[in-house]
Amino acid sequence: MKQYLKQHEWHIIEEGLNPHYNKISESVFSLGNGRMGQRATFEEDFSGETHQGSYVAGVYYPDKTRVGWWKNGYPEYFAKVLNAPSWIEIKIKIGDTVLDLAKCKIESFNRVLDMKQGLLQRSFTATLADGKKVSVDSKRFCSMADGEVGAIRYEIVPINFSAPITITLPVDADVVNKDSNYDEKFWEEVYKEAEPGIALVTAQTKKTNFHVCTAMQYKVQAEGKDIPQQVSVTLREKYADNVVVADLKQNSGLVIYKYAVVLSSENHPKDKLAAHAKTKLKAAVAAGFDKLFAEHAKVWAHKWEECDITIEGDVAAQQGIRFNIFQLTQTYTGEDERLNIGPKGFTGEKYGGSTYWDTEAYCLPFFLSTAEPKVARNLLVYRYKHLGKAIENGKKLGFKDGAAFYPFVTMNGEECHNEWEITFEEIHRTSAMAYAIRDYIDYTGDKNYLTEYGLEVLIGIARFWNQRVNWSGDKGKFVILGVTGPNEYENNVNNNWYTNYLGAWTLRFAMSAITYVKASNPARYAEIVKKVNFQENAETDRWKHIVENMYYPFDANRNVILQQDGFLDKELIPVKDLKPEDRPLNQKWSWDRILRSCFIKQADVLQGIYLFEDDFDEETIRRNFDFYEPMTVHESSLSPCVHVILASKIGYKEQAYEFYLRTARLDLDDYNNDTEEGCHITSMAGTWMSVVKGFGGMRVRDGKLHFTPFIPDQWKSYSFRLEFRDRVIKVKVGSGGKVETMLESGEPLEINVNNKVFTLTK
Ligand code: BGC
Fold first, then answer.
1. How far apart are CA 457 and CA 169, in angstroms?
2. Structural domain contains residue 159
3. How many other CB atoms sit within 10 Å of the CB of residue 599?
């Protein structure tokens, strides 16, 4: 854990440059706008520790799989969101000396992420090796108003000299992916162009042939006016720039504006990319930095109105939640149903930038409550469109007759993860899609989704479970063998309780969806039956049989659910007895040792209890929490939020608060020692849930909103807004847990607060 960032309600602030933390800061201070994003690398050269990363949503590369021993059913590739052509560099040379903070004496350094306005700022005063002292102030953003536009304002002031300055303004497609299996470069040049004032490169991804055109134009000014300058251009493979030489006069600064556009063939015809880029760039330059920024900030102001959470009396907690909301919002805007939410968003390359079960299990509730229903619906439709591929994935593993096995990691519906214990065994993920359908319907009331899309998906997934279970003569029950549950520190176990529970629930849910669609729209039902060749009676008879006879591991002595068969054979040791030098286990212990231990990577039994809370009484929840939480190491970012929600439910307020800080400040404080690889974007939705579902106790039951709020002792008040069935409501919880609810828009709404029913009116 590191605590070098300053606390502030709206800003993330780094004072002083610690070169060893630079990659962490590059992740934390990342910018994005749903279409593109970038790590917070410096504009000028930096020879210290850095990971230059720019990303374009939906543009990926199928990197050839690397495995020690091939297993049938492995995917051929691992899809990677690519480190894309970069436009952020403004390289500075003064006289003959390159401005490189790794080689300067730094007097002051500040990096600030203004989350309210989506602006990255940096200022420093530094002395170069030859004694020249400069001060620099830079600002940049990726426009939320137009996802293809970004801009930088870079001001440099010579403090103790006058000299010529050389400014290099590149567009560079010669980038390498940090995460590459065979050290290949993934981009090829298609077209480039440079003339004084503009530089442009169109590059295409190998194999997938996505074209991306990145173009830049600039202005160099002093006191608001263009200044005399000599301009030359460079063109080399995958690279184009303008090089500007001007005079830098002591104490009188130059301001460099760099405008950029990034267009991809996902949204423009390939043969028009360069032309469209130039038109767009011209408009951006004409608008100018201030106007572009004002438009961008206006969108952020609107977004914050929709999804801000305020916390009074605890700056660390306030900064944490805003940071999570900020990152989530700039990663996924919900406008394009082809896109999804990668675990690292635009902040790094780990996990390939692809779609995981994280979206359905963690992110969906955030988007359901803070955006119009279309956004969450788009996330579901994304999976509907992958149904065919999910059936193919199933076939590759020997399933048949339309059994849908959704991938653990995907870009286009195909599985692209190849660790056997996850690819083949972490099968619970396929039902995350079913649970998301239920979540969406419960929240929005849009049951029609079942008729339009949902039922087909549910039948496919139910068929998977039907084939994946087997009858145990010994137990006289259906069992599910050879799986990995959410807790990835156990592989190839039998009867992971979470998996068995979710599988049986999916079968029940699919049957209830069938009943609904059949009754409400017989014609559509007939169409689906025909399309998927559904043998209703035969198939559902067997599903019922499985549901009624599923085996659930349980320990009668302790009266707790068992994570899996044989769990009690382990030596049960609490995490608090581990030595600090053993943590995190996944970086310190061998896999063999991890697998034999009782330690739990992330909520597993507790994940199931969280998803199906109403199936368990409070005493049962407490007993299982008391048993499993002490053995949980939370080495997945997805873990603490589930514990906040359950701890809140059972009245463990202090613990809930501790877990909250852990999830909210996971990246800000680098809890898991891995933020330099990127931020944990998908778990950020879990932070939001921690406040709303955890402290706020928000649930939807029978189409109604329920709240059982409490307030952590450290806070004076907190408030959040929810969009719910054409209403916007605001909930504020003050000291002593006093609750105020307000209907901001929409028709009167009945809600339940602390088991009392109220009607909210304006
Ligand atoms: C977790 C998975 C998760 C993945 C991506 C892993 O560490 O164990 O549950 O899907 O990270 O966030």
1. 49
2. yes
3. 24
| 330 contacts 32 by C-beta, under 8 angstroms | yes
Give the pLDDT confidence score for residue 37 in this predicted structure.
97
Q: Is the CB of 343 under 6 A from ligand 1?
A: yes
Q: Does ligand 1 lie within 6 Å of residue 357's CB atom?
A: yes
Give buried/exposed letters for 233-250 (b at 16+ CB in 10 A, else e).
Answer: beeeebbbbbbbebebee
Residue 669 covered by a domain: no
What Cα–Cα distance (Å) separates residue 30 from each residue in 52, 140, 292, 426, 495? Answer: 11, 11, 19, 31, 41
What pLDDT was estimated at residue 69? 86
User: 636: CA distance to ligand 1 center in Å?
Assistant: 6
Q: Which residue type, as a one-letter code, is found at position 710?
A: F
**Number of C-beta neighbours around residue 32 at 10 A:** 26
Residue 180: per-residue pLDDT? 82
For the chain, which residues score pLDDT lower than 50?
A: none
pLDDT of residue 673: 87
Give the position, in ligand 1's atom list, of the atom nearest the Cα of 488. Answer: 8
Residue 611 within a domain: no
pTM for this predicted structure: 0.95
Which domain CATH number covers 218? 2.70.98.40
3-class SS at 669? coil
* Residue 179 confidence (pLDDT): 79
Residue located nearest, by CA, to atom 8 of ligand 1: 636
Distance CA 261, CA 203 (A): 14
Which range marks the domain in which residue 156 is found?
33-63+76-297
Tell me how many domains the chain contains: 2
Q: Which residues contact 269 (CB under 8 A, 6 or more apart)?
A: none
666 within domain boundaries: no
Cis geometry, peptide bond prior to residue 584 (ω within 30 degrees of 0): yes
